[in-house]
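Entry details:
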Amino acid sequence: MTQPTTPQRPLKVLAAMSGGVDSAVAAARAAEAGHDVTGVHLALSANPQSFRTGARGCCTIEDSRDARRAADVIGIPFYVWDLAERFREDVVEDFIAEYEAGRTPNPCLRCNEKIKFAALLDKALALGFDAVCTGHYATVVLNEDGSRELHRASDMAKDQSYVLGVLDERQLAHAMFPLGDTLTTKDEIRAEAERRGLAVAKKPDSHDICFIADGDTQGFLADRLGKAEGAIVDESGARIGSHEGAFGFTIGQRKGLRIGHPAPDGKPRYVLDISPVNNTVTVGPVEALDVTALGAIKPRWCGTAPAGPGTYTAQLRAHGGETEVTAELIDGELQVRFAEPVRGVAPGQAIVLYDGTRVVGSATIATTRRAAAAV
């Protein structure tokens, strides 16, 4: 039997405060629960004034000030920690390199793995803190044998366990998610923030990548990788268009292909494959996107690694649904088969396995097998 983690003694807690409403309410709840809470804002940009006003994340001057004001209202100490260089190396450069290699990364997942629950947690433990608190919507549960598990949030509509699937049991032992086990809507979280006098109560959310100032991912990549004209081809290999860089495309993309003439059947075409070696993008009909199996590397387990084949549900995107799969770890690679074909699966994305609401683990998609593969 499992139950939400409820520490019997007050903990020394470091609350990561992004400047948004969720992390502010999480810090307030941790303090109200009797923990010794210190707020910290992570300065992740070497030039934060260049980032757009209103962006959610850890990159704007406004966010830093909002976090400080929230900490003052809660009545907790507050600091700003400079992790810009680590963020640049582990998240931004990884993001660029993945696109350059023809893959589609998830920078938020990488930030949780490398920054919030590696760099930040390690520093917190070294300074004598017991736990790191964030505003993520997920739940840590404690088993009778003392082991911990990561579960989905009580409210599936806000669940963020997908981007936390990279956390191992050691990290879960020092993670606190005060928002995850309460069934409240975002409006209720905002109302709670307002009752607590937190000025971020009405601050809008943003789903943009925090380090891309204008939200133009393709322009961001072109500035760093340079434009390189290449071919857009159909499944037979015939050239039907051109592009300025294969990095500007993702598997399953339909819009922005700028193909001069329609397909013979008149139906829309989608990106099926991206080849950085010859800078070629292959397009075809939507049914050619059907994926029946995949191989994923760099598995990380939220507890003990599963032994042998098993049946799970899988999530392939941060805001995607679940699909039934069978999975087995073979020679360090996760081999996954889908009960029904799925579409828009791209190398570089994370696949997160679930057993009910429990997060089993996460791995990075390396290869896919299609029902109708591109030639």
In short: Residues 107-126 form the longest helix (20 residues). The two ends are 50 Å apart (CA to CA). Residues 50-58 have pLDDT under 50 and may be disordered.
